[in-house]
């Protein structure tokens, strides 16, 4: 059976999907046609049910719960891994400040709305452009994600607030950023097969970290090996293998804060 799969080119995604996509593990007869796209594009496709299996922000998932169910494996969820609001040291922020966000459907934007509901002058842009747009003076501040967490200080930019730290202080729970959804139209047996295969791929990646390096570096925005390694170490962890009770509790809380009201279950049943 062939499924359409969407993931981002970010190191944590390419790292965990490498074994699955390159037949380094038993895929139980499943094949995948993969599309690479920025997470906000993946979110938009998820709203249209474009892909059979997809990475998506948990904020986006809150709007398409009726179409997708979350896999227990493959999530980006953890501690000290949240989006960071940054600016030039000389910039003063106020209610009129222009804030760049990596997409209105991202979990990063949801967290910004929770932490700073007064900031309404938001500008959407590709996450990799935000640092330079601040430096050029086109925006007053920006919300960075992914590998930009590791590069903004080198460019002379200053942290305003780490929204991951904010979430952890408010909830004591790890921060849910994004997960892998499979369409609800598929039979339970297919959904569970995808979940098993992805977990196998994550486990293979963690046990054979050098195996995916060429694939990861080919797609990475930031090519420095140490930055890529730090990115993977931050976003791929025990919750990527299995959400567990704590991970599920964190996701459920975030979805409640996003205003989700539904009779649908969020996760594939055991």
Count, helices: 11
The appropriate CATH architecture of the largest domain is 3-Layer(aba) Sandwich
**What is the rounded Rg?**
18 Å
Distance between the termini: 22 Å
Full CATH superfamily name of the largest domain: Periplasmic binding protein-like II
CATH topology of the largest domain: D-Maltodextrin-Binding Protein, domain 2
Proportion of beta-strand residues = 15-25%
| Topology, number of strands | 11
Number of separate structural domains: 2
Order of helices and strands: EHEHEHEEEEHEHEEHEHHHHH
Q: Structural class given helices, strands, pairing?
A: alpha/beta
* CATH class division of the largest domain: Alpha Beta
Largest sheet: 6 strands, mixed
The average pLDDT value, as a whole number, equals 93
Structure write-up:
This protein is an alpha/beta fold and 270 residues long. It folds into two domains: 2-78 and 176-257, D-Maltodextrin-Binding Protein, domain 2, CATH 3.40.190; 84-171, Periplasmic binding protein-like II (D-Maltodextrin-Binding Protein, domain 2). It is 39% helix and 19% strand. The protein has eleven helices and eleven strands. The strands form two sheets. Strands 1, 2, 3, 4, 5 and 11 form a six-stranded mixed sheet that branches. A five-stranded mixed sheet has the order 8-7-9-6-10. Helix 1 (11-21) crosses helix 8. The model has no long low-confidence stretch (mean pLDDT 93).
């Amino acid at each position: 059976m062939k499924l359409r799969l969407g993931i981002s080119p970010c190191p944590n995604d390419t790292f965990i999907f490498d074994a699955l996509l390159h037949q380094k593990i038993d895929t139980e007869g499943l094949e995948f046609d993969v599309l690479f796209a920025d997470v906000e594009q993946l979110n938009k496709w998820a709203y249209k049910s474009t892909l059979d299996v997809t990475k998506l922000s948990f904020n986006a998932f809150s709007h398409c719960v009726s179409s997708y169910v979350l896999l227990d494996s493959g999530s980006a969820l953890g501690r000290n891994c949240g989006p960071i609001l940054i600016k030039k040291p000389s910039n003063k922020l106020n209610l009129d400040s222009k804030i760049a966000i990596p997409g209105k459907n991202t979990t990063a934007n949801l967290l910004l709305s929770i932490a700073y509901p007064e900031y309404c002058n938001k500008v959407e842009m590709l996450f990799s452009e935000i640092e330079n747009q601040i430096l050029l003076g086109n925006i007053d501040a920006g919300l960075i994600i992914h590998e930009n967490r590791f590069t903004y200080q080198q460019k002379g930019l200053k942290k305003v607030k780490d929204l991951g730290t904010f979430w952890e202080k408010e909830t004591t729970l790890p921060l849910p950023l994004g997960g892998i959804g499979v369409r609800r139209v598929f039979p339970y047996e297919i959904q569970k097969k995808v979940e098993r295969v992805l977990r196998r791929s994550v486990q293979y990646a963690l046990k054979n970290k050098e195996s995916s390096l060429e694939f990861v570096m080919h797609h990475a925005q930031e090519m420095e090996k140490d930055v890529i390694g730090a990115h993977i170490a931050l976003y791929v962890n025990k919750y990527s293998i299995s959400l567990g009770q704590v991970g599920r509790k964190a996701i459920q809380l975030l979805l409640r804060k996003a205003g989700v009201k539904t009779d649908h279950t969020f996760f594939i049943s055991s």
